[in-house]
Every structure is written in structure tokens, then in C-alpha cells.
Amino acid sequence: MKLSKADDGRSPAHLHRSLTLEMVRVTERAAIAAAEWRGKGDEKAADEASVKAMRAELDRVSIAGRIVIGEGEEFECDDLYVGQPAGTGEGPEVDIAVDPLEGVTLCAKNQPDSLVVLAMAERGGLLNVARNVYMHKIAIGAEYPADTVSIEWSATENVKALAKTKGVPVSEITAIVLDRPRHAGLLEELRMAGVSVKLLSDGDIAGVIHAVNTEDTGVDIYLGSGGAPEGVLAAAALRCIGGQMQGKLILDTPDKRSRAREMGITDANRVYNVGDLASGDVLFSATGITDGSLIEGVKLRRQWVETSTVVMRSWSQTTRWIKARHAR
Ligand code: VTB
Ligand code: MG
Ligand code: MG
Question: What is the ipTM of this complex?
Fold first, then answer.
């Protein structure tokens, strides 16, 4: 096995494994609530339903939790805001990052790959970033040497270096990129280099996971910028499944810079690796809302509801797919 079972050495303690199943309950419940709003064209209602259900289920878990990545700041939202306590208050002290509806537009349009995502770590294990901050990201599989690509290089340099290490022409490299106007220059570079580009309309947590699972997906590299919270959540998953990612925060306004400083970020230009974004023992759970390439969506039937969840644990390097039937 390529991946070492050993953690990053930050702490010999680890989260109790039974917490993985508790997290599954939380993301399942939120996904069911959001699924009621699939295809209804109302992003806000879908998001609110997911948040409410997540909050209720999270508060039944025996943890002294604290939201470090949430829906926004305390003054902006009622629930799942940064700093809000979560859980019963009795149990291990943990930090929690959530995206109760990753791909809200996908859900509102009933298109593939909207997810409920939650990560849990020991206190201090997740980089604290505000909801409105973006991150430059680059991700490739675990099978390459650590210095194969760099977020400081141009896209052209990166795809050429990756192709060389992989031993294929650049035209056989597939990159995954969020389809946004801000990526026009990046796209042009990739076109010039002859790379095959898979454009994502939303959902770059799944995008990063696809890029490191090259054997399954055929995607070699993730390039571009997306939400910083999604970057931390993707890193939590990579801690469990392997894969390399570098991230650099985009702190392009005085407000974002000062909030980042408050949240403990001292070097605005720092390049973060997976272990800098999510350290110690980390748990990750994602339940599908709409059918997707990562997991199936919620099936709402007359008699029952079926959910599909992928849950991971870094300490044991386990990934489980949990399909559950719930009575209606
Ligand atoms: C990014 C991406 C997310 O929204 O945050 C994106 O990381 C933000 O979209 O996966 P904009 O560029 O339009 O602001 C998602 O696609 C969905 O939350
Ligand atoms: Mg969200
Ligand atoms: Mg999101």
C-alpha cells in the first residue's frame, strides 16, 4: 500500500471511529432535506432546508464541536456560522467544516453532483477561512513525486511537467477546471498546449477528488480557483484517500485580509499543502443530493428514502460507501 497509515504526527490521539457513522447521519439528513427542493429553481430554500436539517442532526452528536468553516459570519446567517458551537457539548473537542449544499445551483436545476459535505478534525486541525474567500488550487494524484507540479508555475509549465512525469504527450492530459469567466486565460493556455479540458459548472470538491482518482475518472489534474472553504474540505478528503493539492488564498480586499488575520492567517501568500489545510485525524462525509459521478443522489419514493454517502477517516485510511434506507 502506497499510503502510510501513520498520521502527520501532530497528535497521537485520534477521533473515535464511531464518529464516522454519526457524521453519516448528519449529511444524510441534510441531503434528504435538500432533495425535497431539487429542481425547484429555489437555491435559497434548498440551502436553508439543508442547513436546518444539518444543524438539528449535528446537535444530537456527542461532541463539543465548533464550526470553523460554515455558512458565513455570525452576523450574516442564523445557523452554522463560524464560531458557533455544535453537538451536545459533551464529548471530544472537535472542529467542524461544512458545506451543507455544495453546488446549490446544481440542486436547484436538478443537475448532477450536488452534495452535502462535512469534515471533522481535532481542535485546530482545519484551516479557518471565511466563506467569501477564493483559493487558487492545483491537484494531482498521489502517484507522482511531490515536486511534479507547483501552484507557482504557469498552467502550461504544469501540464508539460505532468505529461513528462506520466510519460504521455500533453494532448493525453485531461484537466478539470471550473467554467468561469475568470478562467478565460487559463483555458486559453490549456487549449494552446493541447490539453483536454473537462469544464465543471460547479462543485470543485468533487472536481479535486476526480483529479486525484485518475485511474477511475481519467482526469489528471485540477487547475484554477474556487471557494477556499471547498479547498479545505477537499483537503480533508485527500487526507483520507491520498492525493496532492496545493492551495493559495486569494485575499484581494482589505476586508478579506483583515478577517483572515483575525482567523489566524499571518502570511497571505503562503502555499498550503494538503496537511496544512487539514491536519491530525480527519473525518469526511459527503451525501449525494442529485445523482453524481462521486455518489448517487437521494431517492425519494413513496414508502422510503434512500441515501448514498461516502465517509472517510484519515487515521485508518478507510473509505466506506454507505447506502441507507429511511422510512418515510
Ligand atoms: C466555487 C466552487 C464551488 O461555487 O466556490 C464556486 O469552489 C463559486 O462560484 O464548488 P463562483 O465562481 O460563481 O463564485 C462552487 O462551484 C459551488 O459551491
Ligand atoms: Mg454552501
Ligand atoms: Mg460550495
Answer: 0.92
